[in-house]
Amino acid sequence: MSVLKMYSLLPQDLIIRGNKMIKKTSLILTALFATSVMAADNIDNYLQGAPEDVKPAFHNVPKQSELPPLNYVNQPPTIPHSVKNYQITKNVNQCLNCHSVEASRITGATRISPTHFMDRNGNFVGGETAPRRYFCLQCHVSQSDVEPIVPNEFKPMKGYGE
């Protein structure tokens, strides 16, 4: 075999070896990937368990005009209407459209309490709602007529509740 023929076979030999190497590498990577996927499935099952099919109906707001009774001293009143799509940001609070001191005289809605105009030291901050009381949904929640997801054994204080 001449030297010229040897050099002409060399690239083809390298291509064959390269293809074998690519196949081996692909097979090893596929096996590693499959093993890691199987391991991840097992870990998820141990940590999370079976998913619960619980779909609470949070937006079944009762049609009620009177305020529900309070269950303990200083309880924030619940909201007897839906607050879906209400905007409460640092610049806009749609609750105040009806519940501010001025608006409540016109709308007949419950007026926000004087404590909403006090700072943490009990000093009145003026005609504006205090920043710590501005975001209503931190304390007040909308009522929903739904079955409890977990058992509830709460009993109102004596003289409170129904």
UniProtKB/TrEMBL annotation:
InterPro entries: Multihaem_cyt_sf, NapB. SUPFAM superfamilies: Multiheme cytochromes. It is found in: Periplasm. GO terms for molecular function: metal ion binding. Residues 1-39 form the signal peptide. Electron transfer subunit of the periplasmic nitrate reductase complex NapAB. Receives electrons from the membrane-anchored tetraheme c-type NapC protein and transfers these to NapA subunit, thus allowing electron flow between membrane and periplasm. Essential for periplasmic nitrate reduction with nitrate as the terminal electron acceptor. This is Periplasmic nitrate reductase, electron transfer subunit. It comes from Avibacterium paragallinarum (Haemophilus gallinarum). The lineage of its organism: Bacteria, Pseudomonadati, Pseudomonadota, Gammaproteobacteria, Pasteurellales. The gene is napB.
